[in-house]
Amino acid sequence: MTEQLAREVRDFWLDPGRLTRSARSSAQTVRARFTGLLDQAAAGALSAWTNSPRRALSLVIVLDQFSRIIHQGTPKCYACDEQALAITLSGIQSGADATLTLIEQLYFCMPLQRAEFRRAHGPGQSRHHRPVRPLSPPQPGTRTHHHARGTGVAGGRAAAAGHAAIGSRADRTPARCASARTVRAPRACPPAAAPP
Question: How confident is the model at residue 140 (pLDDT cuts 50, 70, 90)?
Fold first, then answer.
């Protein structure tokens, strides 16, 4: 049952089709399917999930991503940040994150970009600067998600460096600094690269 729940989280969140659905539809699905799971995770009832890299990823997604959707607009949306960060740091220190796919690694490391304290950015910086294994080229006639083509890694590196620089000056990241909150238009996905 535990493995099935963890897989459901990953299958839902990492499904490329989710990106084509409306944000409202995805949020409603998260609230309907995963609110109880978030409550269990926040209470520590799912700590056994940290014994496997992919289950740990599922737990990070629940604590980091789903908490923001389920408790959107309330202080509770940040209540699980420290738990998610601890799981991420532990996974990086043990090397468990290296067994994840590239897109899985990006979500696994997301709590580092949200971390408020400079101590968290040290491992995040080194994690984002490790060599990335080569990606297989996209198949002709298919469109791939921009993260899978590698632009997400470069963006993740740039974001981690930017967060660390700002955090070192102000001991806070811009995500939590009220003066830095702005509404930005979403960036369009770049077109799929032609196969070599």
Answer: low
